[in-house]
Amino acid sequence: MDSTTFDYAIIGAGAAGLNLALHMIEDPFFKDKKIALFDKDSKKENDKTWCFWEKGQGHWDHLVARQWRNATVTGTDGKEHTFNISPYSYKMIHALDFYDHARDKINQAPNVTWILSEVEDVRLQDTITVQASKEYRIHDHVFDSRISPGFYSDQSSVKLLQHFKGWVIETPTGIFDDSTFVMMDFNWRWKDTTSFIYILPHAKNKALVEFTLFSPSLIEDENYETMIKGYLSDVLKLENYTITTTEKGVIPMSDYAFHKDNSHQLTKIGTAGSWVKPSSGYSFKNAGKMSLQIIANIKKGMLPSKGLIRKKFRFYDAIFLDVLYNRNELGPKLFTIMYCKNSIQKIFSFLNEETNFLEDLGIMNSFPKAPFNKALVRKLYHRAFS
Ligand SMILES: Cc1cc2nc3c(=O)[nH]c(=O)nc-3n(C[C@H](O)[C@H](O)[C@H](O)COP(=O)(O)OP(=O)(O)OC[C@H]3O[C@@H](n4cnc5c(N)ncnc54)[C@H](O)[C@@H]3O)c2cc1C
Question: Domains of the chain: which residue ranges?
């Protein structure tokens, strides 16, 4: 094979592409397969921090910068609820540590080539062509983390945004409980929206304090900062602190079927492949799970995307998103119920799509019925008449 011919192409060296590439490198099955990994970016910036819950030891533990065993949710009842999340831990990885680790592994893998180039087009005919700085021929399969333009033009899906801005601050004295992270503090929210404060204490005198909204549209940049500043002064009574880093992001929370372009030649991965949990915005842990499933499918000679999407959970997510979209002001109450009327371990397992139908029913029963029934009717009506 020449330098423009590969067995597999992975487009995007992000959470999904790198999880897949690293798991392929670790599996002897791919030893003799040539893999091209394309990214337009050199991935030398710490552009985000990934957190996820996990039971016991995990595959990326050597990259985990911090982990917590306790969480708090301050609900619409005004109370701070503290949970021991054991046997789960909530783990945090700096994206740059993950990119650096991946770069090292890929440099040592003779069969994987990291190509710094924007992919402009993928043509799927008898042969697969990836058009980047050069034209590349791919024998077997393309894994693509570019979001399809169809997502932006689609009118039939619910498109909520998880948008946030956070500051990593340092304080002169230790004021944070570094054994406990704040999952959601609903006492500090933007009027009539699903919004909350999220805190990851890195140390007693250092924490990420983030203001997050799950809502249909963005707010002005200065408003996130007003909310963080207000929380620091009014709730934490902090006037003296230094901002060391800023994090900002937007994650689509949508029931759009990103995965509908999957075929025997191409699999959409990551956000572009419906790997982000629509109702929570989490996807890093899922990227590992999905990558292993793809590898198992390839080894069995099956369609790489077989079994990646669980219809039952997509349906639950679609209903929940519909409620949040149409009754955004209800979100704080619904999340309070979710975390405070159910065991947090059960909720983590539900969000990981590992619960059975009876367990799902138990969780659903804890919610008020009316908004969900209305959302169900809206969905059925939409399906029947559009
Ligand atoms: C700031 C932020 C914080 C987040 N925190 C968490 C978290 O704590 N936990 C969690 O589970 N999820 C989190 N998420 C959500 C989700 O896990 C991430 O967005 C995750 O990075 C998605 O993985 P991905 O591979 O789909 O996309 P990305 O990681 O964004 O990777 C996509 C890659 O594709 C490349 N690319 C795109 N187009 C092209 C092209 N045409 N040619 C070549 N390369 C291209 C990009 O340069 C990029 O490197 C966060 C998201 C953001 C934005």
Answer: 5-48+93-150+255-299, 159-253, 311-385
